[in-house]
Amino acid sequence: MIKISFPDGAQREYASGTTSSEIAKSISEGLARNVLSASVNGQVWDISRPIAEDATIRFHTWNDPEGKATFWHSSAHLLAEAVEALFPGTKFGIGPAIENGFYYDIDLGDRVLSSDDFGKIEDKMKELARQKNAYIRSEISKADAIAYFKDKDDEYKLELLEGLNDGEITFYQQGGFTDLCRGPHIPNTSSIKAVKVLSVAGAYWRGDETRKQMTRLYGITFPKQKELTAYLEMLEEAKKRDHRKIGAELEIFMFSEKVGAGLPIWLPKGTALRSRLEDFLKQEQIKRGYQPVITPHIGKKELYVTSGHYEKYGEDSFQPIHTPREGEEFLLKPMNCPHHCEIYGHRPHSYKELPIRIAEFGTVYRYEQSGELHGLTRVRGFTQDDAHIFCMPDQLKEEFLDVLDLTTYVLKKFGFEDVTAQISLRDPDNKEKYIGSEENWNKAERAIIEATQEVGLDTVTELGEAAFYGPKLDFIVRDALGRKWQLGTIQVDYNLPERFELEYIGADNQPHRPVMIHRAPFGSMERFMGVLIEHCAGKFPLWLTPDQMAILPISDKHIPFAKSVKSQLAQHDIRGYIDDRTESIGRKIRDTELKKIPFMLIVGDKEAESQKISIRKQGEGDQGSMTIVEFVEYFNNLL
RNA sequence: GCCGGCAUAGCUCAGCUGGCCAGAGCAGCUGAUUUGUAAUCAGCGGGUCGGGGGUUCGAAUCCCUCUGCCGGCUCCA
Bridge-partner residues for A484, per DSSP? Predict the structure, then answer.
C-alpha cells in the first residue's frame, strides 16, 4: 500500500501502482471527469501514470494553470498530427503550451502556409480529436529514439535528443503521431472540443537568429465551444481597444513617415492628457522631496563611455553626431542617469543632504530594430518619468520602500488594481555580462528582495533579466481585459556612482560612495498612455480627459446661453467646449458620443427659461436636468 | 535586422486572372434647413493607386527595389 497526501492535509491509502485518475475517481466521479493532470510530489504527471510510492498529490483541472497547460500542450500534439496528415514530410521543432494556447514550430520545406490553410487544419484537428485517441506514454532508449527520428529525417528532434540523457527519454503517441516529449498529457483527444488556429509567423529554431527560421503555428483550444467563442470575443474587444486605433480616432498622437518610424508625435488632445499625467506625478514627487531638473537631449560620447553604456550599447545605438569643425562626438541621450550623475557630482555633498532625489521627464532616443516598433509601446523616442535617488547605503531600504509606495499609489490612481512585480536578477551562469563587484550586486539584490517582502508585494523572480549595472524590479499590471503589461521600474545601482566617482562626506569627515536608485513609475509617458488607452478603451478618468463635457445647443439661438454655462462651469474648473455647428441635436449627440466625451450638456428653450441644463452621460444616456450648482456638485463627486 | 503579409481620396473599403475617363460611404466645402437625446437634405471639390525603376502596344493590377504599416521571431540601458 502507498500513502497519498492531499492539499487539504488529508491522507489516504491506495494499492501501489494506483493512478491519479483512479485516486480522483475514489473521491468523486465529477473530479475524475474534470482532472487533466496531477502534480505528484511536485511534478506534473499524466493521470494514467501509476504511482508506486508514498506521494503528495494535487489535481489539475481546466481551472488552474497547470491543467490548462496540459490541455494545450496535448492540443499542440494534435495540431502536429493534423499538419503531418495534411502535409506529409513536415519536420517538427518544439510545440509548447503558452499563456493563451500553444504553438508548434514546424519546417514545411518549400511550402508556405497562410491563413487560408487554417480552416483545413482546424477541421483535421477536430476530426482527429473525435477519434478519442489516447496519449500513450512510453520510455524509450536514446538509441531507439535516434533511430526513429533518423528514419523520419527530422533533424530538429535529433538535435533535441542530443541534449537528453539515455534513460530519461519518453515518447508520446496519439493516433498516428509520435513525438519526443516529456509530457504530461491529457488522457485522450476527446476533451478537445473547440479548436482555432490563430496565426502563423516565422520563428528562429531555438530562438537563435543565426539559425533556420521555421514556421510557427499558433492555436488555442477549449473543452467547450462556448469558451472559444468567448475568447474570440475578447480578442475582438482587444482589437477595438487597440491604442493605435483609438489614439488616431481621438487625435491623441500620430506618426509621420517623414518624421520617421517609431517617433510619436503628440497632438493637442494627447498633449493635454500627458500634461495632466505629468503634473499629477510632479506634484506627488515634490511632496516626496524630489527636485525637478532639465538636461540636454544630447551628450558627449565620453559621458556614455564613463557610464559604460557606450561599451554595452554603442554599436546598437544611433551613431554619434559629429560637430563639423571640432570633430566632437555627441550621442542622442539614450537615458538620463549619466546626466543626473553629473548634476550630483557638480559640487561636494554632505551626508546631511542625502538622500538627493533628482527628477526629470527626460526624453530619450534609442535605436530599436525596425521590426520591433509598435504603436506607442515600442518606439525610438520617448519620455521617461525618470528620477535618480542618491543616498547612503543605510538609507537604501527606506528610499526603496518609498518608491514602491509611490509606484503602487500612481498605478492605483489610474485604475490598475492588479499589480504584481518581477524581480530581475543576474544570470548566475553568466556573471561576466554585468559590471560591478560581487559584493555590491549581492547588496542590491538583497535590498530589492527584502523591500518587496516587507510590503507584501506579489512577485516573481527571473534570473538573467537584470540590467547590466544592477538588479531591477519591474511592475506588471493587468488591464481591464486581463492582459499583462510591464510599466514602471525600480533599479538599484552601486555601479554608476563608482564610475562617476560620486561621493559624499560622512559624519567621519571621510568620503563615501552613495548608492543610486533609478526609478520611473509610469516607465515612459508613451507606453503608459498606450496601455492606459487600452485599459479604459479611450474613456479616460474624468480628471484626466481633455474635454470633460460638451455643451450642445439645440439651435443656434441657444449659443449665448451655452456660452454662459461654459463660463460658469469654467469657474469650477470643469472644462469642455460648445458644439456650435448648425446641426441637429441628434447629430451633435452622436458625434460627441463617438468622441467619448464624458458629459453632454444639452441646452434649449426649456433650459434657458428654467436656468437648468439637461445632462447626458456618455454611454448611459439622458440623466435628466439640474441646475449648474447641482451639476457642479454631482460632477465633483465623481472626480 | 529576419520570416510572412499589407499599402487605392482625410478615414473605411470596392476595383476578378493587365485593357472603356479609378469608384462608394463617411469626413470636407457650399447652400438650404434652426432642429429636444446616437447620422436633415441637396450640390461640389478631392487620388502622379506609398516612392523609384522595369516588363508590356497598354500597369492600380506582373517583376525588382526603397519607405511605412501589420503578425511573429530576435532585441530592449
Answer: A478
Query: How much is the pLDDT for A163?
Result: 87
Give yes or no: residues A558 and A519 share one domain.
no
**Any atom of strand B under 7 A from CB of A614?**
yes
For residue A256, which nucleotide's C1' is closest to its Cα?
B68
Of A238, A258, A281, which residue is a domain's last? Answer: A238
Residue A203, CB, strand B, below 7 Å: yes
Rg (CA), chain A: 30
Same-domain status, A445 and A577: no
Q: To the nearest 10°, the Cα dihedral for A338, A343, A348, A351?
A: -80
Count of residues making up chain A? 639
Of the candidates A24, A25, A33, A10, the one whose C-alpha atom is nearest the C-alpha of residue A59 is A24
- Distance from residue A178's CA to nucleotide B72's C1', rounded to whole Å: 27
Residue A541 included in any domain: no
Q: How far apart are CA A104 and CA A81, in angstroms?
A: 11
Whether A71 and A45 share a structural domain? no
The CA-based angle A576-A582-A587, given to 5 degrees, is 70
Q: Domain range for residue A74? A: 66-238
- The answer to whether the beta carbon of residue A373 comes closer than 7 angstroms to any atom of strand B is yes
- Tally of structural domains, chain A: 5
Among residues A536, A563, A584, which one ends one of the domains? Answer: A536
Question: What per-residue confidence (pLDDT) applies to A366?
Answer: 94
Residue A290 has which C-alpha cell?
524630489
The whole-chain average pLDDT of chain A stands at 93
Distance B15 C1' – A371 CA (angstroms) = 31
For residues A73 and A18, state if they share a domain: no
Å between A343 CA and B37 C1'?
Answer: 58
Task: Give the pLDDT score at A541.
Answer: 96
Query: In this structure, are residues A129 and A193 in contact, taking their beta carbons and an 8 Å threshold?
Result: yes
Minimum CA–C1' distance nucleotide for A384 = B77
CA distance A388 to A496: 11
Name residues 99-118 of chain A with a Cβ under 7 Å from nucleic strand B.
112, 114
Domain of residue A173, CATH code: 3.30.980.10
- A10-62 pLDDT, tens digit per residue, is 889 899 888 998 999 889 888 888 999 999 998 899 998 999 889 999 999 99
Alpha helices by DSSP H, listed for A352-484, are 396-413, 438-455
Of residues A274, A238, A273, A270, the one with CA closest to residue A254: A270
Instruction: State the Cα–Cα distance between residues A247 and A235, nearest whole angstrom.
Output: 19
Residues A485 and A453 grouped into a single domain: yes
- Mean per-residue pLDDT, A423-452: 87
- Supply the CATH number for residue A608's domain: 3.40.50.800
Strand B footprint nucleotides (protein C-beta < 7 Å):
1-5, 32-40, 67-77
pLDDT in tens, A561-620: 999 999 999 999 999 999 999 999 999 999 999 999 999 999 999 999 999 999 999 999
Residues A363 and A493 in one domain: yes
The answer to whether position A93 is within a domain reads: yes
